[in-house]
Specification:
alpha+beta; about 450 residues; 5-stranded mixed sheet; 3 domains
């Protein structure tokens, strides 16, 4: 597989950046034009070569844009439109599954959808019209380069690229902050005077592929630490401090910026100076980039530590988890809003695949509220501790990780079992355990000790 690597320009002069901005602006106009014309039904089944040939036959004027640049941008936009259409098809497939239980009819609809012949069926046409709306774009800061549109080389210990410009044989040399020469198709993204160069590399040569462990381990995703495994070991302990510090900094920063916005609105004669000198985005964007890089570093190290031990990693599926407790304070909610569960999920997927481990996803419902010793809904989580019904206290994330691991071989609870059904199953198990000899014995021993109060 291919993975994306990003490198940034270094010591780029203002004149070079302005020349690149002009190229990106012209290509942005072209990008918008293609989306406006082919971002809906007209683009179904149309390839970039068909559009290109039509333009050339009609004598379309591309101004000073070199042919290689606008052709590569056209190819990129058509691919984006196709990806947008395929994403809509996934939603239509769910509608097909909900509409019919007949395998033959379902197969017929899937086939029409796959072949882009959905206009022939009224149901598919209605669903695609609902989910595949006409797309538009306002992107004006991207340049896509094929391998012949630039030249990569190393000079004075740093990698450089010579980029095709609007002037024949007047290439723009860009120094990069790396020693590795980019290759293949490049995407240049211009922002705040810096050029980000995106390119693809083979993950086998760019990523860690050392062997995985041999155990089967459950992991609980957390905020204060990235992962806690079922062996009671915590990984990525710096994550919570990193996220909280950044959240607190941004709170103070945006409070001060809001005051400046208020001053600018109240005193129009000062507004221009304030917007030019005090409300820019360069420092904030650079800080965000560094913060994201630090978070990814902590998370990937944590995932690698887990995979060092495990050949099978069992994790909770948090893709459907959107609710939050109303009892939380505003500060806590603000900090939790910066939790990076998406980066955690992606890191688990990528690292497991590269190192040959198996990632199994299970439902996350009630894993933090279940006593992992007996699999029953008795006990209460308070912060980082889980207080069992008999007075035993477990580390809450460790308790959840053990429950996640137990879900792997649970015949009644699957990954997509509704949470209400999971609660009913756990309550039934709890009632059965309470009526069993072991449960009666445990409760009998508990009642003899007046210092232990059941949940």
């Amino acid at each position: 597989m291919k993975v994306t690597r990003i490198t940034y320009s270094r010591d780029l002069t203002t004149s070079k950046y302005e020349r690149l901005e002009e190229i990106a602006r012209l290509l942005g106009v072209l990008r918008s034009e293609v989306w406006n014309e082919y971002g809906s039904l007209k683009g179904v089944g149309v390839r970039d070569r068909h559009i290109r040939d039509e333009w050339l036959q009609s004598g379309k004027d591309f101004g000073p844009l070199p042919a290689r640049l606008w052709k590569e941008t056209l190819r990129d936009v058509v691919a984006d439109i196709k990806a947008y259409r395929e994403a809509a098809k996934e939603k239509v497939k769910r509608a097909i599954r909900d509409r019919t239980e007949n395998d033959g009819e379902r197969k017929r609809l899937y086939t029409l959808l796959k072949r882009d012949e959905w206009l022939e069926d009224s149901f598919l046409r209605r669903q695609m019209r609902k989910h595949f709306k006409h797309g538009h774009t306002s992107v004006r800061n991207q340049i896509v380069l094929d391998p012949c549109s630039y030249k990569a080389f190393v000079f004075s210990g740093k990698a450089w690229i010579d980029v095709m410009s609007l002037v024949p044989r007047g290439r723009i040399a860009i120094q990069l902050n790396t020693t590795r020469e980019p290759s293949g198709t490049l995407r240049l993204i211009l922002r705040d005077g810096i050029v980000a160069v995106h390119y693809a590399v083979d993950e086998q040569s760019a990523c860690s592929v050392r062997p995985c462990g041999t155990a089967t381990i459950g992991v609980d995703k957390g905020y204060t630490e990235a992962l806690t495994d079922s062996d009671d070991e915590q990984h990525g302990k710096r994550l919570g401090a990193l996220l909280s510090a950044e959240s607190d900094y941004l709170k103070t920063k945006y409070q001060r910026r809001s005051k400046l916005h208020a001053v600018a609105r109240a005193k129009p004669h000062k507004a221009q100076v304030i917007y030019e000198n005090n409300l820019g985005r360069k420092k904030l964007n650079e800080r965000r980039r560094k913060h994201t890089a630090n978070v990814k570093d902590v998370i990937h190290k944590a995932v690698h530590a887990v995979v060092d031990k495990a050949s099978t990693v069992v994790a909770e599926d948090l893709s459907w988890s959107t609710s939050s407790s109303k009892r939380l304070s505003k500060n806590t909610k603000r900090r939790l809003s910066g939790w990076v569960k998406g980066i955690l999920a992606l890191a688990l997927t990528n690292v497991s695949r590269r190192r040959g481990a198996t990632l199994r996803m299970v439902s996350a419902a009630y894993t933090s509220q279940t006593d992992s010793r007996y699999g029953i809904l008795l006990g209460e989580r308070r912060g980082d501790l889980f207080h069992c019904f008999d007075g035993e206290v477990l580390q809450a994330d460790y308790n959840a990780a053990r429950n996640v691991l137990a879900r792997l071989h649970d015949p009644e609870i699957g990954r997509f079992t509704p949470y209400r059904e999971i609660k009913r199953i756990l309550q039934k198990r709890t009632e059965h355990w309470l009526s069993s000899p072991e449960g009666k014995l445990r409760l009998g021993l508990l009642n003899q000790d007046s210092s232990c109060v059941p949940f």
